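Is this the right way to post C-alpha cells for a design question? Let me know if I should format differently. Anyway, here goes:
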C-alpha cells in the first residue's frame, strides 16, 4: 500500500473514501462538508462514542464518520483501534484510496497510530489460496491529510507497520515452507535489501563445535539442521551501547519426546514468532537509519521426534559450561535462548532483551492483553514498559526472586528445564534465562499469549500478530535517545 502525507484538504485529494473523526463535545472540522456529517450526528445515526461509525456522501466521495471518544483519552493506540474499524468498513465499501483527516490538535504519535492501524488491519495472508471473486479489494493508497507537515511520522509508522506485517507473514507460513534454513536465507535476503545490515549464519555443525549443547539438544531429533542467525546494525558509528535482541525461532515444535497434545499442534508453526519479531525489528531500525547499535540473535530449529531426539532426563552442557537436566523436552525454548544469551554476552552486548513464545503459564496469567516482562534491571524494565504503552504492545512486569531461582536448580545437574512443583511457570522459565544473563542488564518478554490469535480491531484474530516489532523498535530507540 502506498502511504503519503499531505497538507491538502481531504476533498482536494484523490481519495474515494474519507475518514473523519469527531470527539465528544466537538463538531465536525470546518474544512469538511459539514451538512451531511452534522445531519448524521443530529439524527443520532452517528455518535462521538469511541468506535461508532456512520456513512455519508458528498462531492462523489464516501465519508466515514467515526467517533473518537474523549479528546484527552485519545492516543496512538486509540488511533490504531479507530483506523482498524474504519478499514473494515472501507473494505465493505470496496474502497481503493482512503484519506484520514487527521484530527486537529493531536501529536505525531496519533498520525503514526492511524497509519499503523490501517496497514495492520488491511493485512491478509494469501500465498496458498486463490482470491475469491467476491473478496473485497485491498486498499491501494492511504493519504493522511493534516494542517501541518506530518510526513516524517507517517513514513516512519508505515515502515514499522510493514515490518510487523512481514513478521506476520513469517509466522503464518507453514513449517514445511519455513524450516530453519529458509528462515536463515530470508535473514540474508533482508540484509541484502537494507543498507547497513549484515547477516551471519552459523550452521548446526558450528553450533555443536562452539559448545552450544543446550541449543543442539533441542535440534537433535530434527532432520532439518538448526541455524543461529545473526543480524548486525550500527547506525551510530560504534558510539552507542550495543543492545542485543534475542529471539526464539522454533519453526515447528512437536514437543519432542514429551509430545504435545495433537489438538493444537498445528499452531506450533507460530513458535518462531519471537525470532521473526527480532529480525524485522532490526531491519526496521536499519530502514529508519536509527542512530543505534543492535545485535540480533535468533536461534532457529525444529523440535522433532526421531531416534536421535533428546530424551527426558538427559543432561546437556550449555555454552557457558552450565549443566542442564532436560526433564521435559517440550520446555525447549529456554534451552535455545540460554545459549543465544551467552553468545550475545560474549559479543559484548551491554543490554539483553529476549522475546519468545515461551510458556503457557504467561497465557494463564495475562491472556492476550499483555506480554509478560521479567528483568534483572529496573531501568531497562521501565523503558520497556514505557515503550509498550507508546507502541500499543503492552507488557506487565512479573517478579524475579531467589526462591524462584532455587526452584530451577537441578537434581542431577546444576539446573533443570522443568522444575517441580509446576507453579509460577512463566517466572521459573525466566529464572533459568536469568542464570545465563548474569549481571548484564537483561529483560525477558514472554509473548506466548500475544503472538497469535490475539485479535484487536486492527489485527486478525486467527493468525500471527507480529507482536514485538513495534515494542522493540520503540524500546531500542528510546534506550539510545
Amino acid at each position: 500500500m502506498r502511504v503519503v502525507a499531505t497538507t491538502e484538504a481531504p476533498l482536494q485529494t484523490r481519495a474515494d473514501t474519507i475518514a473523519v473523526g469527531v470527539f465528544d463535545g466537538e463538531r465536525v472540522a470546518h474544512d469538511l462538508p459539514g451538512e451531511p456529517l452534522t445531519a448524521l450526528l443530529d439524527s443520532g445515526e452517528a455518535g462521538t462514542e469511541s468506535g461508532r461509525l456512520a456513512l455519508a456522501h458528498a462531492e462523489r466521495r464516501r465519508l466515514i464518520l467515526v467517533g473518537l471518544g474523549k479528546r484527552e483519552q485519545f492516543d496512538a493506540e486509540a488511533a490504531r483501534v479507530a483506523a482498524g474499524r474504519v478499514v473494515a468498513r472501507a473494505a465493505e465499501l470496496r474502497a481503493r484510496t482512503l484519506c484520514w483527516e487527521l484530527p486537529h490538535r493531536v501529536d505525531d504519535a496519533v498520525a503514526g497510530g492511524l497509519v499503523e492501524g490501517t496497514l495492520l488491519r488491511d493485512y491478509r495472508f494469501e500465498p496458498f489460496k486463490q482470491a475469491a471473486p467476491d473478496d473485497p479489494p485491498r486498499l491501494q493508497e492511504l493519504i493522511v491529510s493534516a494542517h501541518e507537515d506530518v510526513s516524517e511520522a507517517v513514513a516512519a509508522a508505515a515502515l514499522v507497520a510493514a515490518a510487523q506485517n512481514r513478521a506476520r507473514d513469517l509466522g503464518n507460513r507453514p513449517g514445511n515452507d519455513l524450516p530453519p534454513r529458509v528462515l536463515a536465507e530470508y535473514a540474508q535476503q533482508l540484509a541484502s535489501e537494507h543498507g547497513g545490515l549484515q547477516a551471519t549464519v552459523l550452521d548446526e555443525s558450528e553450533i555443536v563445535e562452539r559448545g552450544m549443547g543446550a541449543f543442539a539438544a533441542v535440534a537433535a531429533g530434527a532432520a532439518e539442521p538448526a541455524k543461529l542467525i545473526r543480524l548486525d546494525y550500527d547506525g551510530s558509528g560504534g558510539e552507542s551501547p550495543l543492545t542485543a535482541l534475542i529471539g526464539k525461532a522454533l519453526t515447528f515444535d512437536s514437543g519432542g519426546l514429551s509430545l504435545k497434545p495433537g489438538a493444537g499442534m498445528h499452531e506450533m508453526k507460530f513458535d518462531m514468532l519471537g525470532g521473526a519479531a527480532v529480525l524485522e525489528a532490526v531491519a526496521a531500525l536499519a530502514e529508519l537509519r536509527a542512530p543505534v547499535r543492535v545485535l540480533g540473535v535468533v536461534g532457529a530449529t525444529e523440535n522433532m521426534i526421531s531416534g536421535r531426539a533428546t530424551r527426558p532426563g538427559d543432561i546437556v552442557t550449555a555454552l557457558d559450561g552450565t549443566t542442564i537436566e532436560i526433564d521435559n523436552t517440550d520446555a525447549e525454548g529456554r534451552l535455545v535462548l540460554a545459549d543465544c544469551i551467552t553468545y550475545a554476552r560474549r559479543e559484548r552486548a551491554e543490554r539483553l532483551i529476549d522475546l519468545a513464545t515461551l510458556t503457557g503459564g504467561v497465557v494463564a496469567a495475562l491472556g492476550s492483553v499483555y506480554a509478560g516482562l521479567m528483568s534483572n534491571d529496573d531501568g531497562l524494565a521501565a523503558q520497556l514498559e514505557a515503550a509498550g504503552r507508546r507502541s500499543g504492545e503492552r507488557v506487565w512486569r512479573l517478579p524475579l526472586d531467589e526462591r524462584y531461582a532455587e526452584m530451577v536448580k537441578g537434581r542431577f545437574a546444576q539446573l533443570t528445564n522443568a522444575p517441580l512443583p509446576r507453579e509460577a511457570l512463566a517466572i521459573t522459565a525466566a529464572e533459568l534465562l536469568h542464570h545465563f544473563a548474569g549481571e548484564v542488564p537483561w529483560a525477558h518478554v514472554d509473548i506466548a499469549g500475544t503472538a497469535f490469535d490475539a485479535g484487536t480491531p486492527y489485527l486478525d484474530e486467527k493468525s500471527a500478530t507480529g507482536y514485538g516489532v513495534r515494542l522493540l523498535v520503540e524500546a531500542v530507540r528510546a534506550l539510545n535517545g
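Format looks fine. Someone answered above. Worth noting: The two ends are 30 Å apart (CA to CA). The chain has 14 helices and 17 strands.
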